[in-house]
């Protein structure tokens, strides 16, 4: 197909050719083309096959209102070709075909529509039951659209942005631009979202007069130019709204232009006020074979010529119900299209200027006539027109049918914002009768067709949005209200739904091959609610959602029930309004993790960092992932470990102790100054959720630690469980304010003595003690004498700003003792040898305090505290059939079973929590949660590990701790 000579409305650059491939052929398009328009320019008219009947489908609209042009592009299935910009080197393939789009072997399904009535899938192939497994496999083979390659790697760059706006405007047509200008002139921050590549909307491609010699397309560019001159306006083209949430949170997906730095990005806007100016789409006309290739909407045919320079060369018939159809017929005729005739389903109400223009061009014009049946094999070749009553008809050759029953407002954003919509008999629209606070509507969405009225309604909406933001717009608003009142109001809409046909092949939903006959069948079965009909017939549940059937379906149901407009109710629209790649929601693959103050220092010293929960931590300090040297250095010498990720909290006030008594199972009244207390928290089910250390710093003031994973929820946990008591206490989260260094090993005291004047001898600072002193007379330290790794150990808590100084000081003091870093994996093995558990690793959601062997922590003599979980602990203390935490030793120490491997005995009896080779014991040991019947020492365990070809590993339950059971090492 030859392109039209350059027109001022064109958005393509014919001088810049873009090569691409389709059907193993090298083709070219123009810069500015979409994939669909490039294929159309190369003579292709069939783009896909329908899901159920495999009927040929072609270009119908250009805004993705159906899945007609879904194709595979560069290995990505279900790409909407009519909305996707053509890029050089693209490889495009048809999908959902057995063969080619022109010759699909599955096309025989088209003749079996009689065997697949409404609800077919609900009523067949499940009886007898033995048939269903076979039927299911066959259905799955033909169901769906597109093929996913599991080895495919998605290229591109995906981003997210969170811009601020006082006013967010959805829709970049004349109404949206006018609203944006009104808000921008008031000095507000404005964001305008437009799904097409350019602003302009209904004005962008039309050459009709606007005012005083100015054409509509010129006016659209004038408005766009004004908007671009405002520094407080951000314009997002190629940006489709996705969702709307509480307090005007608007989300959108923006597709990158061919030269953009991103492929697709997620946009989230919190606006004080929102203006919906999404305009209208065309309501499909329902007649026999109304979706054959060669049939397209008015806007599609008009934009093909005016935006992309593509004009059908054969005879074209128009069957329309709106003045836009008359305008398009006149304009396209002037551009060279052979317009055979125009059939207008309206018997009156046409613009007399346009009717006269048809007469002057000798284009036959039939009032009260409508397309009745399209004929042709793979594409339309003839069209039958008839009167509305079907009393007269005529058939004529036709290579293209331009058709539309009228307009329908794009109310999806309003539905997401929970606006109340009601049918309006004058416009034939579902119009908003109740809007949420700070939400306004404008333009063709409300039925306005006159260009100046469209702009005036947009300006009013922009002023209303400015008023929401505190701007006094009363006088200007009054003046613009008067201006709008003097202009033509909303136009009368066409009510015709269906041509006088049976409806067997009149498709109300292209995506799901749902016909008018299917709707009648569902009604005949007793279904009357539109929502139920939608689900039963699948109309509007495909990729296009409510684009094609969204308006016709409720009107058709109202007609079946006794008259259009009487009981018409729109169907529910839910987010997302448009599809997006999952990669877009994932964003740039940020590592949204936290880092300790020593992150860079540990990396410099050879630390291999890993994401652990919300933190990035040093997992290893060499590529020996068994961590042999790190472990043995702690056992025989001295090592240092960054434990900053521990949760750290201060709680104080007259009732601080009461709060601790409530959430900890221990007796917290015997937490004494200078001593640490190991304590645990449970939930209401008695399941352990956290453990840590509590110290008393002074009267009514406590400092306590929690596990890393629990740090973020601790404050709210305590507040939640004390919310009705009226207690007087305060809490502050010090997790990020304090750093922690664990100095551990038999020579740890020697290092610590070199950097402090405090007495840290075993008698002055024994195991279980808490002291506060200074390092090198400058660094304030809160020191705890602990034994998590089973050796002499000091946990040094300091303000985070001192971490570098303390770290370097310890390194210098331990240099002649060959002090070394040890990472999280080494700590994991060390604490396992000592039999210390980590919540979440050796416990799960169902694990109680008793199950992990910590029942001794529970103090039963404080009922007045109403300890969280105490009733459940009492009930589960002697409960049978529970998983218990046990230690085990492997019979074969060649290797350790993988964490998570199953303990089996005919059935699954538990799982391995952790298993490692112990260099200290020269044996593979581990911890497991097993049925209590297997928890006794000496019990044999069989372990199933994936990848071992069914061969079981054997272990024996052993008492814990494995290492230093008397605890002598940590008390040195």
Task: Give structural notes.
This protein has 23 helices and 51 strands. Strands 8, 9, 10, 13, 14, 15, 16 and 29 form an 8-stranded mixed beta sheet that branches. Strands 42-43-44-41-35-45 form a 6-stranded mixed beta sheet. Helix 4 runs parallel beside helix 10 (451-468), helix 7 (323-335) runs parallel beside helix 8 (352-360) and helix 17 (628-636) crosses helix 22. It has 6 domains: 13-116, Ubiquitin-like (UB roll), CATH 3.10.20; 158-280 and 409-485, FAD/NAD(P)-binding domain (3-Layer(bba) Sandwich); 287-404, FAD/NAD(P)-binding domain (3-Layer(bba) Sandwich); 624-644 and 737-831, Gyrase A, domain 2; 663-729, Aminomethyltransferase beta-barrel domains (Alpha-Beta Plaits, 2-Layer Sandwich), CATH 3.30.70; 880-972, Elongation Factor Tu (Ef-tu), domain 3 (Beta Barrel). By secondary structure, it is α+β, with helices and mostly antiparallel strands. The model has no long low-confidence stretch (mean pLDDT 94). The radius of gyration is 37 Å and the shape is elongated. The termini are far apart.
